[in-house]
From TrEMBL, chains A, B:
InterPro entries: ACOT8-like_C (IPR049450), Acyl-CoA_hotdog (IPR042171), HotDog_dom_sf (IPR029069), Sec_Metab_Biosynth-Assoc (IPR052389), TesB_ACOT8-like_N (IPR049449). This is Thioesterase family protein. Residues 128-261 form the Acyl-CoA thioesterase-like C-terminal domain. Residues 27-104 form the Acyl-CoA thioesterase-like N-terminal HotDog domain. It holds the Pfam family 4HBT_3C.
Amino acid sequence: MTKFDEATRAIRLDDTTYDVCLDNGYSIGGPLNGGYLLAVVLRAAVDESPHAHPVSTSAQFLRAATPGPATVRVERLKSGRTATMTRATLIQDGRPFIDTLVTTATLDGSAVPEWTGEPPVRMPDLGECVKLPDPKPESNINLNGQMELLFDPPTIGWLSGAPTGRPESRAYFRLAEEQDPDPFVLALAVDALPPVVFSAGSRGWAPTVELTWHLRALPAPGWLTLLGGGRLISDGWFDEEVEVWDSAGRLVAQSRQLARVGRG
Amino acid sequence: MTKFDEATRAIRLDDTTYDVCLDNGYSIGGPLNGGYLLAVVLRAAVDESPHAHPVSTSAQFLRAATPGPATVRVERLKSGRTATMTRATLIQDGRPFIDTLVTTATLDGSAVPEWTGEPPVRMPDLGECVKLPDPKPESNINLNGQMELLFDPPTIGWLSGAPTGRPESRAYFRLAEEQDPDPFVLALAVDALPPVVFSAGSRGWAPTVELTWHLRALPAPGWLTLLGGGRLISDGWFDEEVEVWDSAGRLVAQSRQLARVGRG
């Protein structure tokens, strides 16, 4: 069992309850990363379903969860031949932290697309991409240690005072330990980039309010490519869209989140 | 009270229950349009909230709802200064038909965007756009009578055997009766286009499994512009993205749905 599999493990207590232990390794200065938490919730939802893959996940982030024991409560809403619908809620100290609606289905790993779009932007080669500097130890940004991100350089220009002026963030992604991507890794990947608004000149904690992502295909082994952008920053709200492409050049996940602009 | 307001009315019974009457005017050969149903559910969710606007709605479509009496059950998950989170479920004959997670907040009608993207496609002028032919009466497609849609001609080429070969659907939209767009009209608008896969050569009923839409600004009076596309058709699933722009040239709503390809 890999470190990520262990950190996202959900142990079945009964028909509707799973025990989980939220891992400090995925925290960012205290709160836990949203994508990591979704991976934990999806472990329970998939375990409870007769179907194998989380094809659609919508989540409301009610409160910022912190490391430690928690439970996932699952409520099956409907199960049919093609798909199962489940409500899954992450609960800590008796209160809901994340509420989700999950659709599971069983994807065909050998499906050939009837039609596919192209990546919206061409990434530079891996060798031309760059890491973020290591965070200061006192910032307690543990998440960065769990994954490797190699960025398209202009999209981290904000680090050196040169934001591009529009919401964007793009990087190659893989786990720090050796592990092929799977749907749970994709849940982490869709929320792994720095907020796209940093590139538009904003700073500070940008809390996710809602995130929906769809699993579109089972990812091939190797690096994932995360292409993040946004359409509107207004009235304290912004959207962040991330497409995840696998090493075989297939669109494997799509996400959009609605979040608050930070005041940092 | 307009016909649309009447058809989406939710009457409060108690803290958690609203009575609604699902209107046959929004049916498509039997089942009701998903966007119309979301508008009904959102009436209840907004009424129950201290905040004024449905900024984020994620919905799972469990079963195809039909006209007649129904209830919306609301469960408030959290309320804070900025936003209220609610689960709202449409129930008919004791069974859930649509389950949603709704975030309400109060948008500032005079907000000026910090940053905004451009429409992804330029629409032809209204005068160059075309209506769909009236449906045959025996098809019972009542929905078309409630709204005016004027299409970008190539995107309905599929009607005459000339699909463009990619998922797309674009039209100007307004209600048939005189009514300025509001957030509830936008809920209808994000699901008002023919499925984008028709333009890629598919036909037949394309049931929505999940639809998430975000209200990004309060719409100005006048026509709305609906720009619909998609990124992948594979393994029986497709995504449909719709951006709604108002007559003042602002992005007012964004939606994505995951749906099944029809077998028609």
